[in-house]
């Protein structure tokens, strides 16, 4: 009679000890995840939700398909760009309140607290889905207002060397960030109305209307915008008379407000010119390449000295890739700089700029073979900045209007030595 072998239970536990520890660790992680989800959804536990069981199951399924939104790993516009299609395509059978529950349940713990505090004393189920999206965009998206994001969207252009796939992706992402899928017919009319205000004379009106549109949110009609224009006009007409001292300050405020921007090349040198339309002060940047990044870097260097302008008049060819590039447009948008064509700008200042441009080109083309471009244009800049142009306030020189003082003349200037590099601002170093 054979005897069966008995395997000790202690030996079995030893064999599976390592697997048991791994399983215990996995269960612990799952429990933590469940606790996090329970914390996020506890606000909804007390809400009276009247739904069909299939609707509830759909909500539950969609919630598991959407990852949590957490800062700073991504902004909300980036998160919604990835998963917004789920809300547009997969939630058509859900009511608005349920869509809000689904969206808010996917917020991280800190993001959920910030959102609930921002809408207090309202509960999370009271704002509509559209209002919830708008609020989350304002809290967790990039800092641009909704109206500015939409204006940026309608101004999108394809870069010359940009791949079609990349351009499509950029259009799709900007569409999502601008919430264009939620825009009404009347809101679109208002957007195009503001988009068409490109004259420097209407810059203040444009800025004021954008602020009003952001304040009022949805529901604004084109007729309301017309009334706001009348209100703006009336407010300006009621301003008190400007005293003499205030007039002097207002004249000074015109300096470096509207600049002519031009970009061209002569032989191997690429020239960027910024020309103040009020003081006629020229700034010239010389570089060896024509990249949009070079132009933006040069602008940033010059603006760090004189401040940001209000308007850039594109005196160059408006079809140039550099000024239509994503980098250039984003830089101007981020700094609230309005770009416009020479149409509507003072013809006198434009004529002065064209005259300076001809002088500049002539000096560069006729320079000595041993002379660099920067060395050739330096005397021209000193001379031009010390001149008085026809119609100048109180017959002041360009430097006196721009800086409040005159410059030393060429003969008095001490020798200045330039150090070679990637690029330089051709400026009047002696002063």
From TrEMBL:
The lineage of its organism: Eukaryota, Metazoa, Ecdysozoa, Arthropoda, Hexapoda. SUPFAM superfamilies: Ribonuclease H-like. Residues 73-142 form the DUF7083 domain. Pfam families: DUF7083. GO terms for molecular function: nucleic acid binding. It comes from the Eukaryota. This is DUF7083 domain-containing protein.
């Amino acid at each position: 009679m054979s005897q069966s072998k008995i395997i000790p239970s202690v030996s079995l536990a030893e064999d599976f000890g390592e697997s048991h520890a791994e399983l215990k660790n996995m269960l612990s992680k799952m429990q933590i995840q469940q606790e996090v989800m329970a914390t996020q959804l506890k606000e909804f536990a007390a809400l009276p939700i009247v739904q069909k069981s299939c609707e509830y199951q759909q909500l539950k399924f969609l919630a598991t398909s959407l990852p949590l939104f957490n800062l700073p790993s991504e902004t909300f516009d980036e998160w919604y760009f990835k998963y917004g299609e789920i809300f547009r395509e997969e939630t058509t059978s859900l009511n608005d309140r349920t869509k809000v529950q689904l969206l808010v349940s996917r917020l991280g713990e800190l993001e959920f607290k910030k959102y609930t505090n921002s809408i207090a004393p309202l509960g999370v189920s009271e704002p509509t889905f559209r209002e919830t999206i708008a609020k989350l965009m304002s809290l967790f998206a990039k800092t641009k207002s909704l109206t500015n994001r939409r204006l940026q969207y309608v101004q999108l252009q394809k870069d010359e060397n940009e791949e079609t796939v990349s351009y499509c992706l950029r259009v799709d992402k900007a569409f999502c960030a601008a919430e264009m899928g939620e825009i009404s017919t009347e809101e679109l009319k208002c957007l195009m109305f503001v988009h068409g205000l490109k004259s420097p004379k209407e810059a203040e009106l444009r800025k004021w209307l954008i602020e009003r549109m952001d304040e009022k949110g949805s529901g604004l009609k084109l007729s309301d915008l017309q009334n706001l224009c009348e209100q703006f006009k009336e407010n300006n007409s009621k301003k008190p008379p400007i005293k003499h001292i205030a007039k002097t300050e207002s004249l000074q405020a015109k300096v470096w407000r509207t600049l002519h921007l031009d970009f061209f090349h002569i032989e191997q040198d690429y020239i960027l010119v910024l020309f103040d339309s009020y003081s006629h002060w020229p700034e010239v940047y010389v570089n060896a390449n024509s990249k949009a990044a070079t132009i933006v870097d040069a602008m940033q260097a010059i603006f760090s000295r004189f401040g940001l302008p209000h308007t850039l008049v594109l005196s160059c060819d408006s079809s140039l890739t550099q000024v239509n590039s994503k980098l250039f447009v984003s830089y101007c948008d981020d700094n609230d700089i309005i770009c416009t064509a020479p149409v509507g700008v003072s013809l006198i200042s434009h004529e002065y700029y064209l005259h300076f441009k001809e002088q500049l080109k002539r000096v560069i083309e006729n320079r000595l073979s041993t002379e660099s471009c920067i060395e050739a244009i330096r005397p021209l800049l000193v001379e031009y900045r010390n001149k008085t142009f026809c119609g100048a306030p109180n017959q002041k020189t360009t430097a006196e209007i721009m800086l409040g003082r005159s410059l030393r003349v060429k003969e008095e200037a001490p020798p200045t030595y330039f150090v070679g590099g990637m690029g330089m601002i051709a400026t009047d170093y002696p002063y």
